[in-house]
Amino acid sequence: MVRPPNPRPLAPLFLLLLLPLPLGAADPLPIEGRLMNSCIQARRKCQADPVCSAAYHHLNSCTSSISTPSPTQELLVPEDCREAAKHLRNSSLMSCTCHRRMKNQVACLDIYWTIHLARSFDSDLCLKFAMLCTLNDKCDRLRKAYGEACSGSRCQRHTCLRQLRAFFEKASEPHAQGLLLCPCAPADQGCGQRRRNTIAPSCALPSGAPNCLELQSLCVADPLCRSRLVDFQTHCHPLDILGTCATEQSRCLRAYMGLIGTAMTPNFVSNVNISVALSCTCRGSGNRQEECEQLEESFSHNSCLMEAIAAKMRFHSQLFSQDWADSTFSVKERQNKNPALMPQPWVPSLFSCTLTLILLLSLW
Predict the structure, then answer these.
(1) How far apart are the C-alpha atoms of 357 and 22, rounded to whole Å?
(2) Measured between alpha carbons, how far is 328 from 335 in angstroms, rounded to an integer?
(3) DSSP E strand boundaries for the chain
(4) Which residue, among 217, 139, 203, 209, has the nearest Cα to 175 in the 3D structure?
(5) Radius of gyration of the chain (CA)
(6) How far is CA 21 from CA 25, 65, 94, 227, 252, in A?
(7) Residue 211 contacts by C-beta under 8 Å, 6 or more apart in sequence?
């Protein structure tokens, strides 16, 4: 019997991860074609097209014309900058990539961030993720909806919470997590304040300081909130004193974000760290004091939740780092406590993979 020829070996997984395809895309291009679309090459193609070239130059000027707002202000993108970005939607620039150890790496990254209008905002990564949301029609629409519902003059808490739930349910996960879990330097209180204001706490959170058990009773009385609280307790639960977590970090983060817009909405407690808590107290709990403290500490002293948030923020920080080697080394040092977060040895371009995949999933 004649044996059929051996099938061609599958492409290494790290090559597949490098491909800048949006989720759900079908019938991808050949691997070689996608890997060759560096931002340097895409820029050369754009220069040959007068319309593309003019739009790119205008977009480049936009990065210096957009002012940095205060932490409580909305990020405003001039209409002409939006129009320039729209002209580039079908350009190969929109799917271009930059790879570690490539020639002209700095020039490539300069082009990449010109396209995504996030290059010139210094170290305030919360502002950069806000920009990416603003440039995405769906994210921008959903964010404006809860922003209007939760504004000080129009605040109706029930409506505000409903619009918050809609945002975190319907916005793409990269955009929603980027806004909520953006990393800030400890000394950058403006960035920290922007992060705390993501959920419009002045309207979304209860006034005063209700008892945490009262919040839990309100939550349990609502089928949606009750389900999401159980989800959080299931997926963000430390199993032992060593901090072993029940499930993977991605599920914990989704469960945590699922509580935003319910009676049990958590938030960051300050502008200078990543501690989170419910907006409640255990004063006056009587003989249920211990039960109340366990509930409160399931947010404020939850090692699984804190590590999941910290890991996602480190990941987001990498997305905007131009020194890939140093940032990768730094993250690897911090990941020693959780081997599951360690990059695999056969993924030499992990940063370029995630950079492309996350920011291009649903940017337009």
Answers:
(1) 7
(2) 10
(3) 266-268, 276-278
(4) 139
(5) 23
(6) 6, 30, 11, 34, 26
(7) 280, 281, 282, 283, 284, 285, 292
Give the C-alpha separation, 184 to 268, whole Å: 12
> Alpha-carbon distance 94 to 88, whole Å?
7
Residue 238 DSSP label: B
The angle, 0 to 180 degrees and rounded to 10, between the axes of the packed helices 137-149 and 157-170 is 170
Report residue 115 CA to chain centroid gap. Answer: 19
Alpha-carbon distance of 293 to 189, in angstroms, equals 29
Cβ contact 300:277 at 8 Å: yes
Alpha-carbon distance of 102 to 352, in angstroms, equals: 11
Q: Give pTM, 2 decimals.
A: 0.63
pLDDT band at 117 (very low <50, low <70, confident <90, very high): low
Is 309 within 8 Å of 253 (Cβ atoms)?
yes
CA distance readout (Å), 47 to 43, 94, 105, 108, 289: 6, 14, 19, 15, 68
Per the structure block, which two tokens stand in for 149?
A: 């519902």
Burial of 50 from C-beta contacts in 10 A (0-12 / 13-18 / 19+): exposed
Q: How far apart are CA 260 and CA 150, in angstroms?
A: 13
Residues in the chain: 364
CB 276 within 8 A of CB 194: no
Quick one: which of 135, 200, 125, 126 has its CA closest to 167?
200
Residue 279 DSSP SS3? coil
Two tokens at 57? 């130059």
Q: Burial of 340 by CB count in 10 Å (0-12 exposed, 13-18 middle, 19+ buried)?
A: exposed
pLDDT digits (tens, 9 = 90+) for 243-287: 789 889 999 999 999 999 999 999 999 998 999 999 999 999 999
